[in-house]
Amino acid sequence: MQQATYLVAVDGSKNAERAFQAAVDLATVTGAQLTLLYVINDRGYDKQRFEAEYLRLIDAEHQLAEELLNTYQKTAQQQHINVQQAMVYGYPKEQIVTYSRDNQPTDLIFLGATGNNAFEDGELGATASYVIRHAAANIFLVK
C-alpha cells in the first residue's frame, strides 16, 4: 500500500497554521507524508513599470516563505512525519490546484477557509472556494 500524501497550503495566516496542525495530527495517526506548499502571489504587480519595487517585495516574501516552511517542516519532523517543501509563484488558488494535480498524487488538501487576504472572519475565501470546486483531491478545510 502506498503512503498517503497530504498537501498543506500555507501562507502565514492563522487558518493556514491551523490547517498545518490538523494535517500533522492526522498524519501522525495515518502515517501520511506531508507536502507544504507556499504560493508567492506575483500577480497584480506592474512588473515592468515598478521592476525594482516588485523584485524587492517578491524577495522579501520569498524569505518569509522559506522561514515559515522550515519552521513547519521541523515541527512535523519532530512528530516523525516525512515532509517535503514546495514554493511556487502565481495565483494561489490556481497554483494549489495545479500543484496537487501535476506533481505527486495528493490524497487530501489541507487549507484554511480564509487566508491572509480575508476581509471578514467566518467567510469562505476566494482561494478556498476555488480549490473546493476545481481540485480532484478531497479537501480538509479549517476555520
TrEMBL record:
InterPro entries: Rossmann-like_a/b/a_fold, Universal_stress_UspA, UspA. Pfam families: Usp. Residues 7-143 form the UspA domain. It comes from the Bacteria. CDD domains: USP-like (cd00293). Coiled coil: none annotated. SUPFAM superfamilies: Adenine nucleotide alpha hydrolases-like (SSF52402). Belongs to the universal stress protein A family. This is UspA domain-containing protein.
